[in-house]
Amino acid sequence: MAKYKIAWLPGDGVGNDVMEAAKIVLDKINLDAEYIHGDIGWEFWRSEANPLPDRTKDLLGKTDCALFGAITSLPKEECEKALIPELQGKGKIYASPIVRLRQELNLRTNLRPCRAYAGNPLNYKEGIDITVFRENTEDLYVGVEFHPLPDAVRKVLNENHKKMARFDDTPGEDIAVSLRINTRKACRNIITDAFEYAKKNGRKSVTVVEKPNVVRETSGLMVRTAREVAKNYPDIELWETNIDAMVMWLVKNPLDYDVLVTSNMFGDIVSDLCAQLVGGLGFAASGNIGDNYAVFEPTHGSAPKYAGMNKVNPTAMLISSMLMLEYLGENEKAAALNGAIGAVIKEGKVRTYDMGGSNSTTELAQAVADKL
Ligand code: IPM
Ligand code: MG
How far, in Å, is the centroid of ligand 1 from the Cα of 235? Predict the structure, then answer.
């Protein structure tokens, strides 16, 4: 029996292409694992009105962790139109399977390392090495939203907040409300994870990225919690930066930053910026990590126009596989894989189109495998 059972979730579009690349590398590295395919994505939305079928969730329960490719999601109306006729008009609502996985399995930490591999022609600057810790289950992503605003909800809000009065003349149909819900526990967990990572990896600072001057309660809770947690790590500096200033500083002085920690929505935004600093979505890897399970995925979407063309850069998927190896405690294999990715990029002989080359997805993966 293999040492690990890994759920294999290619999903849609280029998810399949980059997972094939991951397989080439994982086979070469001899990970003692059984890979078990799971259904997920658009096809299952169309045919079952559920892009994350229960059988797939059962599979996750029986595996150590999952590798996930990419998924197509579209606005509400287009989702409805894509359903097979029997399922249309039944009020089925598309919910992003990756967001569901994060919340339903409490994969509370989204780890997004953004490292400029030396010699990558797409680097904004050499030497950038930023790790984003994004809270992964709460915030604006909880999906507690209203449109139109029900009278009962308006009544409770009016009774409890005087600032609601300015909307008294606006009809419910003309008001949309999305709740930003953040708990002390989740704030503490993500901040602690960021500091622990900084400690283990000899990082000097952790920057909490929020907006407490305006969003006083939710952002305020994050920052106040960060100050408390920071007391346990006297050797690591806590910096506090507002999200708007942060994106400016990251463009101006990206080498100043080490570890960033932030809430779900700001983390979504700032991690795309950091990804672009080190070569774009082709290099943006992530781990969704909980106490008992983890899902590793490139941050890019399913890029339907490139699907099946064996064209896109698989590096984000390879780095995600490296994060998976670290999660499994296979640190030597993880370091070897990281070294091989770095060597191929530095040599620059094998490059996908985004890096100005003409090599395919699998050729790049093969080049990395050859270095192992
Ligand atoms: C990400 C993505 C997802 C998110 C989408 C696909 C739901 O942008 O992982 O950053 O918003 O979290
Ligand atoms: Mg995103």
Answer: 33
